[in-house]
Structures
1.
Amino acid sequence: MRILNLILAASMGFGSSAFAGPQSFDFKDPKGVNNVVFKTDAPLESINGTANGISGAVSFDPADPGSVKGKIVVESASLRVPNDMMLGHLRSDKWLDVAQYPQITFEALSATNVKTTANVTTADVVGTMTLHGVSQKVTVPVKITYLKDKLKDRFPKLQGDLLVLRSTFIVKRSDYGINKGTGEDKVSDDIELNLSLAGQSPH
């Protein structure tokens, strides 16, 4: 009986942590708030644009933030700039060629320099970015905020957790074969990307 009581006590005290592990977070936001902001700052023109056709899934373990993995997908046709003529150029086969390359993806493979304070983790995430049909290994700084039981604050009818990702980094369009060496007085080679994303894990 004493052994049985010990087993029951252990189950009650440690049962929830024993079954804890990675959660899957869905980044297709029903509100359409998730977005990527991109900026080029060339000598003649500075251009800002956005994209909100975002989906993907990320696996995150609050007990082991450094094990984060997953894939974020941006629909190329969802990229927008204020000028209609520029938008036409952006989508054309001379630039992004959205008809042939409909998606931009980032697949997170591992994390280094992981630091966690309370529910916030900063890390350098190593992954593969695919743009314009070209895949490159990149390392980007990411801030990860785990918000337990906060899904209801965004969607009152749902229970669950949120995972918020923030990242700012630069890619070179020449690395992805996008009009390499052309038009750099108006569209810089360096493209600054700013990601603001929230994923949901209902339960």
2.
Amino acid sequence: MKKLWIAACALLVACAGQQAVQNAAIVQPPEQTPEQASEMVEDFDPLSLPDYKFVIDSTGQETKKPVSVDEILQKKTGDEQVSGPDKVSGFRIQIFSSRDEKEALLERREALMLFSVNVYIEYDNPLWKVRLGDCVTRFEANELLEKVRDRGYRDAWVVRTRVQAPTAEF
């Protein structure tokens, strides 16, 4: 008799649970206005966007001048700001970010030893970021990204930013 009572209670609880699930399935989402429906685009591809000229506020984030290994060994700071006209829209490879400036400085030092391109350290509150290269085209950036990943930086990615203008070589 006791087992029958337990089975009846279990059946009652199971049926009550199914009813709650069935009722929940009946609830319809709120109706959307046409403006809200047009905002939800699932097939958005950011790479299809055109390139725009960047306007960088001089009071905003600051990019430090590229530093060579020789400058580090000679204790040069390399903090001199590069003038604005020498910068163009381009790409860099981000290899590291951290809240700790010392970690970023160590990572920059390693990158200077590994790569023959300019290495930058940037502060974008709250992160210190280490970025490589001055690629004017996405193609150049993708080639550099492959080289960076081959050297062990598997989580590196391409970042759109302002870069040093290429110099004419004669």
3.
Amino acid sequence: MSEITDLLERFRRAAEVVAVATTGASNQELDFTPGPGKWSVRQVACHLADFELACAIRIRQLLTEDNPTLMGYPEDLWAEGLDHKTRKISQAVESFRRVRAENHGLVKDLPESAFSRPGVHTERGPVTLGWLIRHGAEHAENHARQMMNIRQAYKAAKRNSS
């Protein structure tokens, strides 16, 4: 397998990894925050749904525009303004999965040269489509690990309070 093929598989599979990281959690577990200013599993899942929507726009810009400007977004403001604390996690996870599948469908059969298409991210500077796909895969994988860690911290806190 080529590096791009492996990367695309990680990008696609990340939606499943996120779904597994949230499966079977109670509402108390989903809403537990491991410390002040930290996000809960529910908030992380909502963030991933928002991130994937932003990623969808960026992918489309990179595929259709010459060296587009890719906008960052204020994730903390979105988390507060979009009420991530009370959104249904099932909807957030499904939104992430659906949009990730659509994004994967757009890029999975592209020639390897397409992954060099450049753009300029307002927060990260020069990027390519390949960078965006790698970042999307790593971002979801990292947040899935974060969700599992939050769930473990919840279980430990519950044991310690008994």
